[in-house]
Design brief:
Strand content: 15-25%
Structural class: alpha/beta
Order of helices and strands: HHHHEEEHEHEH
CATH class: Alpha Beta
Distance between the termini: 13 Å
CATH topology: Trna Endonuclease, Chain: A, domain 1
Largest sheet: 5 strands, mixed
Number of helices: 7
Shape: globular
Radius of gyration: 14 Å
Strand order of the largest sheet: 1-2-3-4-5
């Protein structure tokens, strides 16, 4: 699986993704998660839903092929750091969806307060920064 992800990342480099539209970046993130093995094929596994009025949900992906649990995605193409307030907003959106799991992905980085916050709340939020995306 790691080779599939690496091949995918070399096909669509991160620096090109950062220059694309927000919608293209959100599609790329969902495609990457499918390549990592979530949910099966692209058609059945996930979808980018980010648009104006999306309330902070850029995509959803099934955790497994059966779709027993849904993971909500927030993808940010930022150059500045993402802090606790943005993560708190996302956690609130997850609560509104009655969701238990989320992934917040950024091309930049997260503050220590953002990491501390996700470790302190019950909802499981995984933070993936630009460095982790390229590993």
């Amino acid at each position: 699986m790691r080779s599939a992800v690496l091949g995918f990342m070399f096909t669509i480099p991160l620096f090109c993704a950062a220059a694309e539209s927000p919608a293209s970046f959100e599609e790329l993130v969902v495609d990457l998660l499918v390549k990592m093995g979530y949910g099966g094929s692209r058609r059945e596994a996930g979808q980018a839903i980010g648009r104006s009025g999306d309330e902070g949900i850029d995509g959803i992906i099934k955790e497994d092929r059966l779709g027993l649990d849904i993971i909500y995605i927030q993808a940010k193409r930022w150059t500045g750091v993402v802090g606790r307030p943005e993560i708190q907003k996302f956690a609130g959106v997850l609560q509104g969806q009655r969701a238990r799991k989320g992934i917040f992905i950024t091309t930049s980085s997260f503050t220590k307060d953002a990491y501390d916050y996700v470790n302190a709340i019950e909802t499981k939020i995984i933070l993936i920064d630009g460095t982790a995306l390229t590993e």
